[in-house]
């Protein structure tokens, strides 16, 4: 008699109003021997019934659907039977995706097109990777990421396009905080940056794994939660104290010294880049530009992006922080960084902003 030690298959429910998309997503998922599609649904009402009946391990969810949309589905399911939800959404729904993350979705994938198209095949690798990573996911932490009440803050007001954006100060930052994140990152970044005052003489750079078309609405949304000035990097701008620059999706953000100033530089993906925006590329450049005045922070996410970056920060006498397992949605990136021996502080999410303020208030 032989013992079978193979892990139980990940049971997935596919919810999408397009029958073609449901078939394509199911076909992609069933390529893996570790995934089983236990059902599908064409709208939120049907999806809710099937989710409560089948009790899957994960749901892939379209947002724009008839009868009951993805947002109502999320609100009801997360109240009745919390499950990991992976949003599969078109690129022109960026703002909607972040609303879904706030309602409890753990991550998202950008459809290459809104309509029916064989181009769905282009997301196959990412879809399989994210579904298989569910075994590492801490759902309770994903739900806590957007708990603004814990920081004494409320949800952002509705967008007011006519209101002028806050401008950062004119001072070049005396120090820099370079942050990298992936799965669970949007909530973690919101939690940290919403708790940092604008008066510190430092700038902030962020590499969040995110596709093109999503980083600008993310930066705009994040800007409404914090005293800091948050924007998607355009490239060429000089770093300023009190400013947060977000790496554009599909591009690498780095910085370089130009006399007394430090400028943001954008570059396209290279053959050496496994992840884009690259956390390693950002941290390496920030370490070169700021030396001991660089603080590198690795937050939740799968993979090992950022490990080489924290090693460079330490070589340049900077300081490094990694999010602890107790608060990470996925403890992949922080774990790899910690195992390198180059992390100075391992902290839960709710302690990281305080550490940043303390380090740059007293000088590092």
Structure report:
The chain is an alpha/beta fold and 364 residues long. Helices cover 32% and strands 22% of the residues. Helix 11 links the parallel strand 13 and strand 14. Helix 2 runs parallel beside helix 3. About 4% of the residues have low confidence.
Task: Report the end-to-end length measured between terminal Cα atoms.
Answer: 62 Å
Beta content comes to: 15-25%
The number of helical runs is: 12
The helix content, as a percent range, equals 25-40%
Largest beta sheet: what is the strand line-up? 8-9-7-6-12-13-14
Structural class: alpha/beta
How is the main sheet built? 7 strands, parallel
Task: State the low-pLDDT regions, or none.
Answer: 148-163
Give the radius of gyration.
20 Å
Overall body shape: elongated
Number of strands: 14
What's the overall average pLDDT, rounded? 88
Order of helices and strands: EHEHEHEHEHHEHEHEEEEHEHEHEH
Short description:
This protein is an alpha/beta fold and 364 residues long. 32% of the residues lie in helices and 22% in strands.
Short key terms for the protein model shown above:
alpha/beta, single chain, 364 residues, 12 helices, 5-stranded parallel β-sheet, elongated
Architecture blueprint of SSEs:
Layout (H helix, E strand, L loop, with lengths): L9 E6 L3 H11 L5 E7 L2 H11 L3 E4 L8 H11 L4 E6 L3 H9 L4 E5 L12 H9 L6 H6 L30 E7 L3 H9 L8 E7 L6 H9 L5 E4 L10 E4 L4 E8 L2 E8 L10 H12 L3 E5 L8 H9 L3 E5 L8 H8 L5 E3 L1 H14 L2
Parallel strand pairs: 1-2, 1-3, 3-4, 4-5, 6-7, 6-12, 7-9, 8-9, 12-13, 13-14
Antiparallel strand pairs: 10-11
Helix pairs in contact: 2-3, 7-12, 9-10, 10-11
């Amino acid at each position: 008699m032989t013992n079978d030690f193979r892990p139980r298959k990940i049971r997935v429910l596919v919810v999408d109003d397009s029958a073609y998309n449901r078939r394509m997503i199911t076909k992609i998922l069933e390529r893996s021997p570790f995934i089983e599609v236990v059902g599908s649904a064409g709208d939120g009402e049907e999806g809710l019934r099937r989710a409560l009946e089948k009790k899957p391990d994960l749901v892939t969810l379209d947002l724009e659907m008839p009868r009951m949309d993805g947002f109502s589905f999320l609100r009801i399911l997360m109240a009745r039977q919390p499950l990991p939800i992976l949003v599969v959404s078109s690129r022109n729904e960026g703002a909607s995706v972040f609303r879904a993350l706030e309602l409890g979705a753990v991550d998202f994938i950008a459809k290459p097109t809104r309509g029916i198209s064989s181009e769905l095949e282009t997301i196959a690798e990412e879809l399989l990777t994210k579904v298989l990573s569910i075994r590492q996911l801490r759902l309770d932490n994903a739900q806590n990421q957007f708990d603004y009440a814990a920081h004494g803050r409320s949800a952002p007001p509705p967008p007011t396009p006519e209101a002028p954006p806050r401008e950062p100060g004119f001072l070049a930052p005396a120090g820099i905080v370079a942050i990298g994140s992936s799965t669970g990152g949007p909530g973690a970044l919101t939690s940290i940056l919403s708790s940092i005052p604008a008066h510190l003489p430092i700038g902030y750079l962020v590499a969040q794994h995110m596709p093109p078309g999503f980083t600008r609405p993310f930066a705009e949304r994040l800007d409404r939660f914090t005293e800091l000035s948050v924007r998607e990097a355009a490239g060429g701008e000089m770093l300023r104290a009190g400013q947060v620059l977000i790496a554009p999706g599909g591009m690498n953000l780095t910085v370089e010294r130009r006399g007394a100033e430090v400028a943001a530089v954008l570059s396209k993906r290279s053959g050496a880049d496994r992840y884009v925006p690259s956390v390693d590329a950002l941290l390496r450049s920030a370490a070169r530009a700021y030396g001991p005045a660089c603080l590198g922070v690795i937050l939740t996410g799968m993979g090992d992006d950022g490990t080489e970056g924290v090693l460079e920060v330490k070589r340049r006498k900077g300081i490094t922080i990694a999010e602890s397992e107790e608060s990470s949605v996925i403890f992949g990136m922080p774990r790899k960084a910690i195992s390198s021996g180059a992390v100075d502080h391992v902290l839960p999410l709710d302690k990281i902003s305080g550490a940043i303020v303390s380090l740059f208030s007293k000088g590092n």
